[in-house]
């Protein structure tokens, strides 16, 4: 059984279809039991769709830099 932290760490692999069958089954079970993680995965799926529809080079460099900065700050806080 996975917890919410494990769930969020495996979300990219799930969205990309890269989980093993056993991990996929545990992931889906958690998804059925946790409404917050269900909302999270829906946001990730929507993000993937929107990003796939965004033409390359259409994001302003300043916006990209700010997003990368925020991601690095978030990731650094996650490791603590």
CATH architecture: Orthogonal Bundle
Number of helices: 4
Mean pLDDT: 86
Q: How many strand elements?
A: 0
Computed structural class: mainly alpha
Q: For the record, what CATH class applies?
A: Mainly Alpha
**Proportion of beta-strand residues:** under 5%
Globally, the shape reads globular
Low-confidence stretches: none
Largest sheet, strands/sense/barrel? none
**Name of the CATH homologous superfamily:** Anti-sigma factor, zinc-finger domain
Kindly state the percentage of residues in helix.
over 70%
Distance between the termini: 24 Å
Written as H for each helix and E for each strand, in order along the chain, the element string is: HHHH
Q: What count of domains describes the coordinates?
A: 1
Explained architecture:
- The mean pLDDT is 86.
- The chain has helices at residues 4-15, 21-33, 35-52, 61-78.
- It has a single domain, classed as Orthogonal Bundle (Arc Repressor Mutant, subunit A).
- The chain is mainly alpha-helical and 80 residues long.
- The two termini are 24 Å apart.
Provide tags for this entry:
80 residues, mainly alpha
Please specify the SSE layout and strand pairing:
Elements: H1 4-15, H2 21-33, H3 35-52, H4 61-78
Structure at a glance:
By secondary structure, the chain is mostly helical. 76% of the residues lie in helices and 0% in strands.
């Amino acid at each position: 059984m996975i917890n919410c932290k494990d769930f969020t760490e495996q979300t990219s692999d799930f969205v990309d279809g890269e989980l093993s069958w056993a991990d996929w089954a545990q992931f889906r079970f958690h998804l059925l039991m946790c409404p917050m993680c269900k909302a999270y995965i829906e946001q990730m799926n929507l993000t993937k769709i929107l990003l796939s529809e965004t033409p390359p080079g259409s994001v302003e460099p300043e916006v990209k830099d700010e997003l990368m900065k925020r991601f690095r700050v978030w990731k650094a806080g996650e490791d603590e």
